[in-house]
Amino acid sequence: MLEVTPMAAEVINELTSQSEGTSDDIGLRFALATEQDSQAALELSLSEVVDGDEVVAAPAGAKVIMEPAAAQYLDDKVLDVRQDDEGNPAFAIARQDPPGEGQQS
């Protein structure tokens, strides 16, 4: 299942609080789109849950909504936030560490 870092959850909460409507019903939505060269790409939007979507409850009440194909793609990923070249927050997706790796004994 997609893991959401506390920093990503904070940015999601900021985005949803600025959107119109009830922020409790809105989350960051991932959809899988096919580009012209047949490469899959993730589309991000602020949206409400649609039937069939998978929802991840993130830290601080943030909500990540994924359409089924995006949920399958993001199953072993971590959603984080990094700063872009201009210092603005940008979402970043990375692979989760396999169990037992990346942890010190």
Explain how this protein is built.
With 105 residues, the protein is of the alpha/beta class. It has one domain: Hypothetical Protein Aq_1857, Chain: A (Sandwich). Helices cover 19% and strands 40% of the residues. The protein is built from two helices and seven strands, in the order E-H-E-E-E-E-H-E-E. The protein has helices at 6-18, 68-74; strands spanning 3-4, 26-34, 40-48, 54-57, 63-66, 77-83, 89-95. The strands form two sheets. It has a four-stranded mixed β-sheet. It has a three-stranded mixed β-sheet with strand order 1-6-7. A hairpin with a 5-residue loop joins strand 2 and strand 3. The model has no long low-confidence stretch (mean pLDDT 87).
Poorly predicted tracts of residues: none
Number of beta-strand segments: 7
Assign the structural class, choosing from mainly alpha, mainly beta, alpha/beta, alpha+beta, or little secondary structure. alpha/beta
Query: Strand percentage, roughly?
Result: 35-45%
- Structural domain tally: 1
Q: Helix proportion of residues, in percent?
A: 10-25%
CATH architecture: Sandwich
Region (Disordered): 84-105
Protein name: Fe-S cluster assembly iron-binding protein IscA
Organism: Lentzea albida
Keywords:
105 residues; alpha/beta; Hypothetical Protein Aq_1857, Chain: A; four-stranded mixed beta sheet; three-stranded mixed beta sheet; 2 helices; 7 strands; 19% helix
